[in-house]
Specification:
- The structure holds two protein chains of two kinds.
- By secondary structure, chain A is mainly α.
- Chain A has one domain: Orthogonal Bundle (MetI-like fold), CATH 1.10.3720.
- Helix content of chain A is 72%, strand content 0%.
- Chain A is built from twelve helices and no strands.
- In chain A, helix 11 runs antiparallel to helix 12.
- The radius of gyration of chain A is 23 Å and the shape is globular.
- Chain B has two domains: 274 residues, P-loop containing nucleotide triphosphate hydrolases (Rossmann fold, 3-Layer(aba) Sandwich); 231 residues, Rossmann fold.
- Chain B has 23 helices and 20 strands.
- In chain B, the strands form four sheets. A six-stranded mixed beta sheet of chain B has the order 6-7-8-3-9-10, sandwiched between helices. A six-stranded mixed beta sheet of chain B has the order 16-17-18-13-19-20, with helices on both faces. A four-stranded antiparallel beta sheet of chain B has the order 2-1-4-5, with helices on one face.
- The radius of gyration of chain B is 25 Å and the shape is globular.
- Classes of the chains: A mainly alpha, B alpha/beta.
- At the A-B interface, helix 9 and helix 10 of A face strand 16 and helix 16 of B.
C-alpha cells in the first residue's frame, strides 16, 4: 500500500521529463481522461471485439434457422428467436459487425472525399473552388433520401453500392464544413509562410491546415456516424437497404416490431445497441474536443 | 440644456480633489493549466476626481486586470481574492451584481483596446452609443442621441451630425476609437478606464485620438485610468504614473518627476529602450533592386511606380502608415502578388514575377518574418518540427544533422534545448518571434523581409528582438528589408530609409539624409507625430499645427 504513492510520483516525473513520445503522450492523455471517456472507450472496444470475432462468439450462424419463430427468452436461445426462428443473440452479434462496419466505412469514406475536396477548395480558391462548391450545391439541392433511393434502384442495392452512395451524399456536408473552417486557417500567416517555402499542396493540406481544423471535423464525425445508422435504417425500411438475410440492427428492429404489441422488449435490444454506441462515440468525441480545443476555443 | 445638467453632475458635492477610487491590497488570481496563479499581488492605488492615472508595464504585468478590477470586475478565468475596491465610498466587492451593473456604464465606463472588436458590426454607431444611457434610464432616446452628437463634435469626429448613422465598418479605426470614447462618456461617468486605446493605430491617427480624449476628459473633469505600454503616450495623458511588473507596483510618481528622475532600475530600463541607435553604413553592392513597380488588387491599384534598392548586408527600412502599400511591396517581392508593371532584380538576375515560377533554390534565398508571431507559427506543430521542416525541405538534412542544426539555431536566438518539444502556445510573444526569426534563418537566406516584426511586442521585448536582428546581421551578413510604422525602430535598425505614402515612395536615402531637415512634407508629419517623452509635447505640437493651419 505504502509503495503506491511513491510509484505515482515517479510516474509524474516521468511525464514531466522533456522526452516526448507519441506512446507516452497517449498514455498520459488516457490516464487523465474523464470517466465518460473511459465509458465510451470501453463500450466501443467491446463492440469492436464482438464485431471482429463474431463468428467465434456467436452460438449460431447469422442466417441459420434453429427453432420455431418467436421462441421466448431463456433455454438454448438466450434472447429467444426472431420471426423466422433465427437465434437473436447470434443476430445481434453479427449485426454489430455489419452495422458498425458499414457505418465506419461510410463515414470514413465520406470524410475522406468531403475533407480532401474541401481542403482543396479552400487552399486553391479561384475557379476550382467555384467548380467544387457549385457541384456540391447541386447535389445538396436534391433531397438526400430520394436521391439515395434513385441511385440504389439504378445501381442495385448491394453492400458496396450502399456504402458508396451514402458516403458520396454525406460527403457534401463534410465538404461544406471543411471548406468553411479551412478558409479561416488558410489566410493565416503560417500557411503563407509554407507557400513561400515552396511547400507542395499535399503538405499544406495535411500538415498546416488539417491539424488546425480537426476539432470541428471530429465533432462532425461523431454526428455523421450516428446519422448513417438512420439513413441505413430508413433505406432498409423501404426495402433498399441491407438485404436479408444479412443481420443489421436497423432491420432487426423492424422485423420484430410486432413483438412490442405483446409486451416483449426484444425489438428494443438492437435499438438499444445503436443508442449505446451512439452515446459512447459522442462521449469519446467530446473528450477529444475538450482536449484539443485547449489551444483556441477554450474561452 | 441636458448637457450642462450632466456637467453639473460630473462634479458633485465633494468637489474636485476628493478621493474617487481607492484600491487597497488588491489580489487577483488567474486560472491556467488547471491551477490558480496570482497575477496581481497586493496592488493599491488612489484616484482623485478629475485626475488621470497612467498604468505602465509590459504585457502580463496585470495592467488590464487592475483596470477591470477598478470596476469590480474580474475577467472569466480570473477571481479577486483579496483587498478592497472603494468607489466613491461604495465597496464594489461587497455589493451584489445588480448594483454593480447599475454603476457600470453610468458611473464607470471602459474603453477597450480594439474598438473594431468591441462594436457590434450589425448596429449603427449611435444606437450603440445611446444604449447605456437609455438602458439605465439616464436619458430618453432623443436626448441621448443629441448628447452623443454633441460628444462626437467635441471629439472632433467629421460630420458629427451624421457619422453616428454609419455602421462600424464604414468608419476608420481612429474614428471608431473616438466613437467608443463617446459611448463611454455618454452617461458622464465619474471614472473612465482606457485600456490601450491607441495601440492599434498609426502614429498620425494616434495624435488625433489622444488629443480628442485628452480634451474631453479635461472638459468634463472626468477621472481616468489610462493603461498603455507606451511611455510617451502615457506621458501626454496622465498626471501621475504607476509602473507595474509581474502584478506588483514598481514605482509611482507624478508624471514629470517619473520622466526626469526614475528611481527603480526596471523603470530606468523602460526609459532606455527608445535610445537604441545604430551607426549607419552604406553599401554599393545591391542585392535587391525594385524598379518602377506597379501592383494592384483587382482593379484597385496599390503601388505606383515604386523603386527601392537594398544593399547587401544592410538594412533598408520602409516607413509609412497603414494603407501606404508597405506590406503590398513585401508581397510583390516574395512573389505572392505578381507586379502589374516594372521589374525586380535579385542578386543581378531578374526575379520571376510569380511564386510558381520561382524554384526552390530561389525561394530559399528570400525569407520573411511576420508581424504577428501568433499567426505565423502553426499552433499544432512543435518547435522541433517548425524549425526542422525548412532544413529538411531545402537542405535535405535529416536525423542527427538536422537535430544539430536546430540546436545551433536555438542557440543563435538565445533559446535552448528545452524549447524543442513546445507548442507555440507554450511560448511568450517574444519567444515566438525568436522562433520565427530562427525559421527564416534556418536555410541561410540572403534577404529577409521583416514585416513590422516588433509592433506586436512590448518595448523591452522588442528591443531584445532588434538587438538580435542586428547581431545576426553582423554575424551572417544577411540583408533586411524592414517594414515598419514606428520611427523609433527605424532609428534603431536602419541604414537607409524609404518613406511611402499612398503607394508611392515620397522620400528615400540614407538614414541621416532622411531624418535631418529639410524633410518632405509627409516625412515631416510622420516624424512630428511620434510621441516624445515630454508631457507638454502633445499640447505644443497641436498648438504648432493649429498655428500652421491658421496661417
Amino acid at each position: 500500500m505504502s509503495a503506491e504513492p511513491a510509484e505515482l510520483s515517479s510516474g509524474t516525473t516521468d511525464v514531466a521529463s522533456p522526452r516526448w513520445t507519441p506512446v507516452s503522450a497517449a498514455w498520459r492523455a488516457l490516464r487523465q481522461a474523464p470517466p465518460t471517456a473511459w465509458f465510451g472507450l470501453t463500450v466501443i472496444t467491446i463492440y469492436l471485439f464482438f464485431a471482429v470475432f463474431a463468428p467465434l462468439i456467436a452460438p449460431y450462424g447469422e442466417a441459420e434457422i434453429v427453432a420455431g419463430a418467436y421462441e421466448p427468452w431463456g433455454g438454448d436461445y438466450l434472447l429467444g428467436t426472431d420471426q423466422l426462428g433465427r437465434d437473436l443473440v447470434s443476430r445481434l452479434i453479427y449485426g454489430a459487425r455489419n452495422t458498425i462496419g458499414i457505418a465506419v466505412m461510410t463515414t470514413g469514406l465520406s470524410f475522406t472525399i468531403g475533407g480532401v475536396l474541401g481542403l482543396f477548395a479552400a487552399i486553391l480558391g479561384g475557379w476550382s473552388d467555384q467548380l467544387l462548391a457549385r457541384a456540391v450545391d447541386i447535389l445538396m439541392a436534391i433531397p438526400q433520401l430520394i436521391f439515395a433511393l434513385m441511385l440504389l434502384s439504378i445501381f442495385g442495392s448491394s453492400m458496396t453500392n450502399l456504402i458508396l452512395i451514402i458516403a458520396v451524399l454525406d460527403s457534401t456536408r463534410v465538404f461544406r464544413l471543411t471548406r468553411a473552417v479551412a478558409m479561416n486557417v488558410v489566410v493565416l500567416d503560417f500557411v503563407e509562410a509554407a507557400r513561400l517555402q515552396g511547400e507542395k499542396l499535399g503538405w499544406i493540406m495535411s500538415r498546416e491546415v488539417l491539424p488546425n481544423i480537426l476539432p470541428p471535423l471530429v465533432a462532425e464525425f461523431g454526428l455523421r456516424f450516428c446519422f448513417v445508422f438512420l439513413t441505413i435504417s430508413a433505406l432498409s425500411f423501404l426495402g433498399l437497404g441491407i438485404q436479408p438475410p444479412t443481420a443489421d440492427w436497423g432491420s432487426m428492429v423492424r422485423e420484430n416490431a410486432t413483438l412490442i404489441n405483446y409486451g416483449d422488449v426484444t425489438p428494443l435490444l438492437p435499438a438499444g445497441a445503436i443508442a449505446l454506441l451512439t452515446v459512447a462515440v459522442n462521449f469519446v468525441v467530446d473528450w477529444f474536443l475538450h482536449k484539443t480545443s485547449g489551444l483556441k476555443d477554450e474561452r | 440644456m441636458s448637457v450642462s445638467e450632466h456637467i453639473d453632475r460630473a462634479a458633485p458635492s465633494p468637489g474636485p480633489g476628493a478621493r474617487l477610487l481607492e484600491i487597497k491590497a488588491l489580489c487577483i488570481e488567474g486560472r491556467s493549466d488547471d491551477r490558480w496563479h496570482q497575477i496581481v499581488k497586493g496592488v493599491g492605488l488612489t484616484l482623485r476626481r478629475g485626475e488621470v492615472l497612467g498604468l505602465i508595464g509590459e504585457s502580463g504585468a496585470g495592467k488590464s486586470t487592475i483596470g477591470l478590477a477598478a470596476m469590480g470586475y474580474a475577467r472569466p478565468g480570473c477571481r479577486i481574492t483579496g483587498g478592497s475596491i472603494l468607489f466613491d465610498g461604495i465597496d464594489l466587492l461587497k455589493i451584489d451584481e445588480a448594483k454593480r451593473r447599475e454603476i457600470w456604464g453610468t458611473r464607470i465606463a471602459y474603453v477597450a483596446q480594439s474598438a473594431a472588436a468591441s462594436f457590434n458590426p450589425a448596429h449603427k454607431l449611435i444606437d450603440q452609443c445611446v444604449e447605456a444611457s437609455v438602458g439605465h434610464h439616464f436619458a430618453g432616446e432623443d436626448e441621448a442621441k443629441r448628447t452623443t452628437v454633441d460628444l462626437f463634435r467635441r471629439l472632433r469626429l467629421p460630420d458629427a451630425e451624421h457619422i453616428g448613422y454609419r455602421y462600424p465598418h464604414q468608419v476608420s479605426g481612429g474614428q471608431l476609437q473616438r466613437a467608443m470614447t463617446a459611448m463611454a462618456m455618454a452617461c458622464r461617468p465619474d471614472l473612465i478606464i482606457f485600456d490601450e486605446p491607441t495601440t492599434a493605430l498609426d502614429v498620425t491617427t494616434q495624435i488625433e485620438v489622444l488629443a480628442a480624449i485628452k480634451d474631453v476628459v479635461r472638459q468634463f473633469h472626468t477621472a481616468a485610468i489610462y493603461i498603455s505600454h507606451d511611455l510617451a503616450v502615457v506621458a501626454q495623458m496622465a498626471d501621475r504614473v504607476m509602473v507595474l511588473r509581474y502584478g506588483e507596483l514598481v514605482e509611482e510618481a507624478p508624471t514629470r518627476e517619473m520622466l526626469t528622475n526614475p528611481q527603480q532600475p526596471y523603470t530606468k530600463s523602460l526609459w532606455a529602450v527608445r535610445s537604441l541607435r545604430k551607426e549607419e553604413e552604406s553599401g554599393q553592392d545591391k542585392i535587391l533592386r525594385v524598379d518602377a513597380v506597379d501592383a494592384a488588387y483587382g482593379v484597385l491599384k496599390v503601388l505606383h511606380g515604386v523603386s527601392i534598392q537594398v544593399p547587401r548586408g544592410r538594412t533598408v527600412a520602409v516607413v509609412g502608415e497603414s494603407g501606404s502599400g508597405k506590406s503590398t511591396l513585401a508581397r510583390v517581392i516574395t512573389g505572392l502578388l505578381p507586379p502589374a508593371a516594372g521589374s525586380i532584380v535579385f542578386d543581378g538576375k531578374p526575379l520571376p514575377r510569380g511564386l510558381k515560377e520561382r524554384d526552390k533554390k530561389l525561394l530559399q534565398r528570400i525569407q520573411m518574418i511576420y508581424q504577428m508571431p501568433d499567426t505565423a507559427l502553426n499552433p499544432r506543430r512543435r518547435v522541433r518540427d517548425i524549425l526542422g521542416r525548412p532544413l529538411e525541405h531545402h537542405l535535405g538534412l535529416t536525423g542527427a544533422a538536422r537535430h544539430g542544426r536546430i540546436l545551433e539555431l536555438l542557440d543563435m536566438i538565445e533559446l535552448d534545448e528545452r524549447f524543442l518539444e513546445r507548442f507555440p502556445s507554450e511560448l511568450s510573444g517574444g519567444q515566438k518571434q525568436r522562433i520565427c526569426i530562427a525559421r527564416a534563418l534556418a536555410i541561410n537566406p540572403e534577404l529577409i523581409i521583416c514585416d513590422e516584426v516588433t509592433s506586436a511586442l512590448d518595448q523591452l521585448v522588442a528591443e531584445e528582438i532588434l538587438k538580435l536582428l542586428l547581431r545576426l546581421q553582423k554575424e551572417l551578413g544577411v540583408s533586411y528589408l524592414y517594414i515598419t510604422h514606428d520611427l523609433a525602430t527605424v532609428k534603431a535598425i536602419a541604414d537607409e530609409i524609404v518613406v511611402m505614402h499612398q503607394g508611392r515612395v515620397v522620400q528615400s536615402g540614407s538614414k541621416s539624409q532622411v531624418l535631418t531637415p529639410p524633410h518632405h512634407a509627409y516625412t515631416e508629419l510622420l516624424l512630428s507625430s511620434v510621441p516624445e517623452m515630454d508631457p507638454d509635447w502633445l499640447d505644443s505640437l497641436l498648438a504648432r499645427r493649429g498655428l500652421a493651419a491658421a496661417t
